[in-house]
């Protein structure tokens, strides 16, 4: 099955650890769609994997920001919390509706959910790292 949610080079922030995490998040988002035909249990497993990796990634990013003395750490952390809230609301809906909720609208939601954050907030952090001569 082709990927529903396409990674693109525009999403590279050019900080290796962060880019690797983001690419893995795209793989995990696509797993939801490639496993959907196996039924609700398979979807729940895929969603669970996305949810825990998302939280790990956010924690790693925030730890990197602390080390780098990033002045926008608290605003960025707030955005992460908002994204987790949105993801959890989406999961609740999926639990209620079941496999029928795994559709194009979910793909668009997830793609937008992650890419809009990367393009604004993560790019800003990467720019700060470069400006301050740090690697993250
Ligand atoms: Fe990120
Ligand atoms: Fe972030």
Hetero compounds: fe (ii) ion
Q: Determine the CATH topology.
A: Four Helix Bundle (Hemerythrin (Met), subunit A)
Number of helices: 4
CA-CA gap between termini:
35 Å
CATH class: Mainly Alpha
Measured by DSSP, the beta-strand proportion falls in under 5%
Work out the radius of gyration. 15 Å
The structural domain count equals: 1
What's the average pLDDT?
A: 95
Query: What general form does the structure show?
Result: elongated
Protein name: Hemerythrin
Organism: Paramagnetospirillum marisnigri
Keywords: Iron, Metal-binding, Oxygen transport, Transport
Pfam family, one: Hemerythrin
Secondary structure elements and pairings:
Layout lengths: L15 H19 L5 H28 L5 H25 L6 H28 L5
Helix pairs in contact: 1-2, 1-4, 2-3, 3-4
This protein binds fe (ii) ion (2 copies).
The site of one fe (ii) ion has 6 residues, from helix 3 and helix 4.
Characterization of the model:
The protein has four helices and no strands. 74% of the residues lie in helices and 0% in strands. The chain has 136 residues and is an all-alpha fold. Helix 1 runs antiparallel to helix 4 and helix 2 (40-67) runs antiparallel to helix 3 (73-97). The mean pLDDT is 95. The protein has one domain: Up-down Bundle (Four Helix Bundle (Hemerythrin (Met), subunit A)). GO terms for molecular function: metal ion binding; oxygen carrier activity. It comes from Paramagnetospirillum marisnigri. Residues 15-128 form the Hemerythrin-like domain. Keywords: Iron, Metal-binding, Oxygen transport, Transport. This is Hemerythrin.
């Amino acid at each position: 099955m082709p990927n529903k949610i396409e990674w693109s080079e525009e999403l590279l922030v050019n900080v290796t650890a962060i880019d690797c995490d983001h690419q893995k998040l795209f793989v995990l988002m696509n797993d939801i769609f490639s496993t959907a035909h196996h039924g609700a249990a398979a979807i729940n497993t895929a969603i669970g994997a996305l949810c825990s990796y998302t939280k790990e990634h956010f924690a790693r990013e925030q730890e990197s920001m602390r080390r780098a003395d990033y002045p926008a750490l608290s605003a960025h952390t707030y955005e992460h919390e908002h994204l987790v809230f949105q993801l959890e609301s989406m999961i609740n809906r999926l639990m209620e509706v079941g496999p029928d909720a795994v559709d194009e609208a979910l793909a668009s939601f997830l793609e937008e959910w992650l890419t809009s954050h990367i393009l604004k907030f993560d790019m800003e952090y990467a720019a700060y790292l470069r400006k301050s001569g740090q690697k993250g």
